[in-house]
Design goal:
64% helix; two-stranded antiparallel sheet; three-stranded antiparallel sheet; 8948_t:CDS:1; single chain; mainly alpha
């Protein structure tokens, strides 16, 4: 075997091993993310029981625990995002390990520093999982009422038509179906639409939202129950409006 063929073979083996290492690391992150999600799920179940029992002091303590899970989830997202960018650089031919590690650590430190500087409002009251946690507690005693926005500065009302927080998929331009949100850029898409793009582009795709420079992989997507609930509410409002119009025309 020639030396050039030997080098090519070694290079192919090296790339294969790198892919396996990245895949293993992503699996580890997914397992830890599942741990965080399960923890918040258990906290939610316990919180609804405490709300029914009117145990406010214990409920307040559980709220702090839920926030800890949110912090943990965000830290994992920052690590996974940095690792994802590291993989992109590695695939593009950046083979100097020391430079890649420095890039990873610099991005992670910058993301963590920015997160720590955020307000309570930004950390928790705009987090989908924490909002869902508070929503379940609210529903115990207010099943037929809309929960007031946790973010007091946000306009949480649904307006007929396109709104500040769009209910339309930027890919299909239609109302979101099974909405999923990217944990690297917080943009939301219809599940089938974004998954088709990802599969057609070797499992990673630039975010379809205009102006966003993030890359999205399948493991970056998380179901967004809050937006799904808003879509259903919007549809109900639209149906009620059409019923009123039809009734008026009959009269």
């Amino acid at each position: 075997m020639s030396s050039s063929r030997s080098r090519a073979s070694l290079g192919g083996t090296s790339q294969y091993n790198e892919r396996r290492e990245f895949d293993s690391l992503f699996r580890d992150f997914n397992e830890m993310m599942h741990f965080a999600v399960r923890g918040l799920t258990f906290a939610t179940e316990a919180a609804t029981d405490l709300e029914e029992a009117e145990e406010q002091e214990e409920l307040n303590q559980l709220d702090l625990i839920a926030r800890d899970y949110v912090d943990f989830e965000n830290q994992l997202n920052f690590q996974r995002s940095a690792l994802n960018n590291l993989k992109i650089r590695s695939d593009a031919g950046h083979k100097f390990a020391s430079e890649l590690v420095e890039y990873y650590e610099a991005q992670l430190d910058d993301d963590l520093r920015k997160y720590e500087s955020k307000s309570e409002n930004e950390k928790y009251f705009q987090n989908e999982n924490y909002i869902e946690f508070r929503q379940k507690i609210w529903d115990v005693n207010h099943p037929d009422e809309t929960m007031p926005p946790l973010d007091k500065e946000a306009d949480d009302e649904i307006v007929m038509g396109r709104q500040k927080e769009s209910l339309y998929c930027p890919i299909t331009t239609l109302l979101l179906e099974e909405p999923v949100t990217s944990n690297v850029c917080k943009h939301t898409f219809s599940k089938d639409a974004i998954m088709q793009l990802i599969r057609r582009n070797m499992n990673t795709v630039p975010c379809p939202m205009t102006g966003c420079d993030k890359h999205i992989m399948e493991h970056n997507l998380q179901p967004n129950k809050r937006i799904e609930r808003k879509v259903q509410q919007y549809k109900s409002q639209s149906e009620d409006l059409m019923d009123d119009i039809e009734y008026t025309n009959i009269e």
